[in-house]
Specification:
By secondary structure, the protein is mostly beta strands. The protein contains no helices and twelve strands.
Amino acid sequence: MLSIAALSSEPLTITALLGDKYGNTVPEGTAVYFSTNKGTINGSASTDANGYATSQLQTNQTSPGIATVRVETVDENSTRISRELDILFSGKPQLAVTPETVDLADFTSQTFAVSLEDENGNPLAEGTSLEVSMDHPELILDGDSQVALGDETTAGPGVTVI
């Protein structure tokens, strides 16, 4: 998962798979350290028999933005090895529809663009849904009227604009 709602109280599980320089999994019990610059994360874990270590990232209902999660361990020479992963903490939904007025002169069709993003222009968290409907029995709604957002970190057509 690349995004989570900043106001979420649910933790996000971060899983790291560790391997050695030959592509083998590291020994069970290898120490792995987790850190983040936003929210909180369990600081350390040990790998299981398959080389996986997990930690829980909490947003702590912090401000929206990018949280960088750092995963670190040491190799056989005690050299630090680390990788970073960016997680988007999405903010409050902002909905915009253009045009704002309906003009059906001569009973023709009209196309609308719908933008759904947070207050910083970022995508909302995965699973956020949008349903477009109308309340007129003689009109037909065509196109994307039900959308469930995917796991995205960048905005744009097909992500925040439909």
